[in-house]
Design a protein that fits this description.
Number of helices: 20
Structural class: mainly alpha
Strand content: under 5%
Shape: elongated
CATH architecture of the domain at 53-153: Alpha Horseshoe
Helix content: over 70%
Radius of gyration: 34 Å
CATH superfamily of the domain at 53-153: Tetratricopeptide repeat domain
Mean pLDDT: 87
CATH topology of the domain at 53-153: Serine Threonine Protein Phosphatase 5, Tetratricopeptide repeat
Order of helices and strands: HHHHHHHHHHHHHHHHHHHH
CATH class of the domain at 53-153: Mainly Alpha
């Protein structure tokens, strides 16, 4: 079968159609190949130009830094930041410029503007927290900065140290213990943290007055800072070498000042601990009972449960006393006072064997605490003392502290001094 022969008109239009198709293909090739290549080249040129400009700005800023021309550095860094708001370097140069011109507050603010994804964020936030706790005198801003660091890197020991330092100085005992144990759990604890776990039931900080007095200037009406300053002062004066020779009028004036503060902040836990401790020493059972009514049953403060145990014991409510003491131990197993007082309650109930075991634990804890308090400073903790702490924690059934400290002792040469507040002679800054 033969193919049909196209007509003359059909034969003439075929090349014309092919020609028209060619004109469509050429623009298509331009759009698909040539234009993207040109755009890629232009983008690459722009990127190279940005990197070149960034390098130039970096060099100029470093030169101004070396020459100490802080006002000029600030101006150039601001221009850089305006040109490229995502630049980490411009923020760091701005912080450096403001810091060296005496504006600590703005300097720490620039440091905090870096994103969490920056490879410079940890050292920047550490410097910001140092300024907040130190010369910038912005103590109430420091915890959030330090928590931000620990959210990015839970193993950052310096951040743990400073956050524990803040909680200790502001007498937030429950938060301090929680932070200490979190640091232990993440193996980011300063080695002297174990000392503070033993001494936490009552610590008199030699640098407490100086820090709390300065911090109070940042916010004179702040409850946290007012109470911390007052208790640090009262504890220091009450335990001073010449306390017995202090005129009675001065003692009473100081005590009335504390009473006035309690009337102003009746739910403040640090104040309640202060007065409960005094009233228990005075065996004022009635007042202790009245004050304990202000503490909710849901409290996570182990000392309040120990005080409840004492109050129930004074009223011969032995079963309630035992439950309260055991609750206190659930919250803090390293408090030798609780072991001692629970042993007394168990003896009164006829549980002599268990009472004897608890008494042994309390004696070890009491002796250990006494030895730790006699150290010249917390950096003086020796491997031998750490072994004693580990052994005591094991007697108390504190698995976390026992296991973590065992690992630390095994891998440790000499303990590295940390930054927690000292309980004896020397003050230690954050």
């Amino acid at each position: 079968m033969t193919s049909p022969i196209p007509s003359e008109s059909e034969a003439e239009t075929a090349p014309q159609k092919a020609g028209r198709t060619g004109w469509y293909v050429i623009p298509g090739l331009f759009l698909l190949v040539i234009l993207p290549c040109g755009w890629w080249g232009f983008t690459k040129y722009q990127e190279e130009a940005r990197w070149k400009r960034r390098a130039e700005l970096n060099t100029e800023c470093r030169q101004l830094t070396d020459e100490g021309k802080w006002a000029e550095l600030e101006q150039l860094a601001r221009e850089w930041h305006k040109w490229n708001p995502e630049s980490d370097e411009s923020l760091l140069f701005l912080a450096d410029a403001r810091l060296n011109q005496g504006d600590i507050v703005e300097a720490q603010d620039f440091l905090q503007q870096l994103p969490d994804t920056s490879d410079k964020i940890i050292p920047s936030l550490l410097l910001a927290s140092e300024l907040q706790l130190g010369p910038g005198n912005l103590p109430l801003a420091a915890p959030e900065t330090l928590k931000r660091i620990l959210k990015i890197d839970p193993s950052m020991t310096t951040a743990q140290q400073r956050l524990i330092f803040f909680y200790a100085l502001t007498l937030q005992r429950t938060k301090m213990l929680r932070q200490l144990r979190q640091a232990v759990a993440t193996r980011s604890e300063p080695i002297e943290a174990y000392v503070y776990l033993i001494l936490s039931s009552h610590m008199t900080l030699t640098n407490g007055i100086s820090y709390s007095s300065r911090w109070l200037q940042s916010d004179p009406e702040n409850e946290l800072l007012k109470v911390a300053r007052a208790i640090h002062y009262a504890d220091t004066m009450d335990s001073a070498a010449g306390a017995d020779e202090e005129p009675e009028a001065e003692k009473q004036a100081r005590f009335q000042g504390m009473v006035k503060l309690l009337n102003e902040f009746p739910q403040n836990h640090a104040l309640l601990r202060y007065f409960l401790r005094r009233k228990m020493i005075e065996f004022d059972v009635e007042t202790v009972g009245q004050m304990l009514k202000q503490i909710p049953e849901s409290t996570g403060e182990s000392l309040f449960w120990r005080y409840r145990g004492w109050h129930h014991a004074q009223n011969d409510e032995l079963e309630k006393s035992e439950r309260a003491y055991r609750k206190s131990l659930d919250l803090d197993r390293l408090d030798w006072h609780t072991w001692n007082e629970l042993a007394g309650v168990l003896r009164r109930q006829g549980e002599l064997d268990e009472a004897e075991e608890m008494q042994k634990i309390s004696v070890v804890g009491k002796d250990l605490r006494k030895e730790l308090r006699q150290m010249p400073n917390v950096a003086a903790v020796t491997p031998e003392l750490l072994v004693q702490i580990r052994d005591y924690a094991e007697m108390c059934g504190d698995v976390l502290v026992t296991q973590s400290l065992s690992a630390r002792i095994e891998e440790m040469g000499t303990p590295t001094p940390g930054m927690l507040p000292t309980t004896t002679g020397k003050s230690l800054s954050p």
